[in-house]
Write a structure and sequence with these properties.
about 50% helix; two-stranded parallel sheet; mainly alpha; about 5% strand
């Protein structure tokens, strides 16, 4: 199971823990918002690490285990958005992409 969590209230973003290396000039502007967000969220992250652990343990001991588990509201929203955009792009280019096959080729029966 691959757990893809939202931010959790751990000590990770604490002022005494979080350190930033000096960014190259190329990435300074791109990283500014990410760094400000990380530094400003300590104690305000939406995820409860104890509840997350309980969910993970219960799923691992259950009968059905997901390959990927977006854990937390933000994770579900972000990952769902990525999948929706990917599916829309696949649908948009499907005809062009499928044209790469031989015209007389049978449909694939390989398991995914």
């Amino acid at each position: 199971m691959i757990v893809e969590p939202s931010r959790s209230r751990t000590g990770f973003n604490g002022a005494d823990v979080l350190e930033f290396a000096e960014p190259s000039e190329t990435y300074r502007q791109v990283l500014a918002a990410v760094r400000a967000d990380m530094a400003g969220t300590d104690g305000r992250q939406e995820g409860d690490p104890a509840r997350a652990a309980e969910i993970i343990v219960s799923l691992v001991h259950g009968e059905e285990v997901p390959l990927r588990l977006p854990l937390g509201r933000e994770a579900v929203e972000r990952i769902s958005g990525v999948y929706r955009r990917g599916l829309a792009e696949t649908a948009r280019w499907a005809e062009a992409a499928q044209a790469a096959d031989f015209a007389d080729a049978p449909a694939s029966v390989r398991p995914v």
